[in-house]
């Protein structure tokens, strides 16, 4: 029995094969902007391998239930079951080797994330005798493995990150092969993306995503421009299950899909304006009457109850006066914790979310209650501490921070290292310090970082024939003149 499928074709017409058995051991990451053809690619992969391996699809947008008609996948409506039932379903899926689509389209975003996390955790925790090989496809993976804290509750974020990390990092021994698709690599947790060995990179326009995609494909910056120029449905492929060298592939056709979806432009109705207005306003009152009435407001408390409540509150304030909290001491200690964290060996190589969680844990350990910085504020303070800006006078710090106003959060640390060195009159950038601040040990990524900052007009790089670099920051006093 062959284990390879044809995922698409090269420009020459040569088929591009995908080894499903190798994929089960090495996992896959798909990236591309909205409209680049990610869902089409996933559908092609699922359809071509449907008869080879059990498949589980996590579908937050309701794109994949049509697989049931052609290939017999069982569609599970996530909104119809309780959390305990979702976990029981996951255990039965592993036991009976059923191919399913978990349709989360009927849930709110946070409910989708919690449902998927509990489902994936139950798949992961299945008994050893049920560790059969299964392809686990997660569309819109940046929802379920966010790189930074968003608007979801903290316990939800921890739950879903744990589930996705288990799938990608520890799932192989349990037969789970993760296939994750995301619109932006920058929004996907690094520890989830890093476990994939196969990559299919579609069209993307943002420099930071383009550079990261090129880095995963082993491409130089000048070659990375190809990612921006890819057409819809075209991807750059690399990995042991596909090819050892990057190859451009056009994804082949699919059999299923949303029949109701209209592609391209459609002719508008030729209804006269007066008739259209009549269609919109006719019997509008009857539609309103069919809507369920809003819930009745709770009854207002009686005057006597309000008087008693106010009196008890006043008594508590008089009997148990609370001591004032010295927020300045708390703010100072928080700054010290961030500085200690930034000085630790290897901390810069962790994701921003992991750094932030370590910081919060240490604050809770010391019972610090006060004005905590949010994720964005922490990242800036961490970058400032890591660059050692506290060693400079306040005027210089203010000048450097003013120049850094247009720098992205994940590039702030390297920029501050460069700015501090430039202000001190150093003519060559310390690449070791730059690598630590950027969380990388790749010289290629450092070169691409400097190129990116120069393209943004934030620095000026001069390189002589001997390979030495001089980096200057426009508008910064104290550095040598050109």
TrEMBL record:
Q: Which organism is it from?
A: Qipengyuania gaetbuli
Which is a Pfam family this sequence falls into? DUF87
Disordered: annotated segments: 286-308
Which Gene3D superfamilies did the record assign?
P-loop containing nucleotide triphosphate hydrolases
Q: What top-level branch of life does the organism fall under?
A: Bacteria
Question: Which residue numbers delimit the AAA+ ATPase domain?
Answer: 24-214
Q: What is this protein called?
A: DUF87 domain-containing protein
Q: Which residues cross the membrane?
A: none
Where along the chain is composition biased (Pro residues)? 291-301
């Amino acid at each position: 029995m062959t284990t390879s499928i044809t995922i698409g074709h090269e420009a020459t017409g040569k088929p591009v094969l995908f080894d499903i058995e190798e994929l089960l051991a090495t996992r896959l990451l798909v990236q591309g902007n909205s409209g680049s053809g990610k869902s089409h690619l996933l559908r092609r992969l699922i359809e071509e391998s449907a008869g080879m391996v059990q498949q589980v699809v996590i579908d937050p947008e309701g794109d994949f239930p049509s697989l049931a008609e052609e290939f017999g996948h069982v569609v599970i409506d996530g909104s119809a079951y309780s959390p305990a039932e979702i976990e029981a379903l996951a255990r039965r899926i592993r036991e009976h080797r059923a191919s399913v689509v978990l349709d989360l389209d009927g849930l709110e975003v946070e409910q989708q994330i919690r449902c998927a996390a509990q489902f994936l955790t139950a798949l992961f925790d299945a008994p050893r005798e049920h560790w059969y090989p299964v392809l686990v496809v997660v569309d819109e993976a940046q929802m379920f493995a966010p790189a930074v804290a968003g608007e979801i509750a903290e316990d939800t974020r921890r739950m879903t990150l744990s589930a996705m990390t288990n799938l990608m990092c520890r799932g192989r021994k349990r037969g789970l092969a993760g296939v994750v698709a995301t619109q932006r690599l920058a929004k996907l947790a690094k520890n989830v993306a890093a476990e994939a060995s196969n990559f299919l990179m579609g069209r993307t326009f943002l420099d930071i995503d383009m550079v990261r995609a090129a880095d995963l494909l082993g491409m130089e910056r000048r070659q990375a421009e190809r990612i921006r120029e890819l057409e819809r449905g075209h991807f750059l492929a690399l990995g042991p299950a596909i090819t050892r060298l990057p190859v451009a592939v056009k994804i082949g056709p699919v059999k299923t899909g949303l029949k109701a979806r209209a592609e391209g432009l459609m002719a508008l109705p030729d209804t006269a304006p007066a008739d259209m207005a009549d269609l919109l306003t006719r019997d509008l009152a009857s539609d309103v009457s069919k809507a369920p009435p809003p819930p009745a407001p709770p009854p207002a408390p009686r005057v006597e109850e309000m008087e008693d409540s106010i009196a008890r509150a006043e008594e508590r304030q008089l009997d148990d006066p609370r001591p004032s909290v010295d927020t300045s001491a708390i703010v100072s200690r928080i700054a010290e914790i961030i500085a200690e964290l930034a000085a630790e060996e290897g901390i810069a190589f962790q994701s921003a979310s992991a750094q932030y969680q370590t910081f919060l844990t240490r604050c809770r350990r010391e019972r610090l209650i006060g004005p905590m910085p949010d994720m964005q504020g922490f990242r800036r303070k961490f970058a400032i501490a890591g660059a050692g800006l506290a060693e400079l006078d306040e005027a210089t710090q203010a000048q450097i921070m003013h120049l850094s106003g247009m720098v992205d959060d994940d590039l702030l640390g390297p920029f501050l290292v460069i700015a501090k060195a430039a202000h001190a009159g150093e003519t060559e950038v310390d690449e070791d310090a730059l690598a630590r601040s950027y969380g990388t040990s790749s010289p290629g990524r450092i070169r691409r970082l400097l190129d990116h900052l120069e393209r943004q007009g934030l620095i000026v790089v001069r390189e002589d024939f001997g390979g030495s670099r001089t980096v200057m920051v426009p508008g910064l006093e104290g550095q040598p003149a050109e």
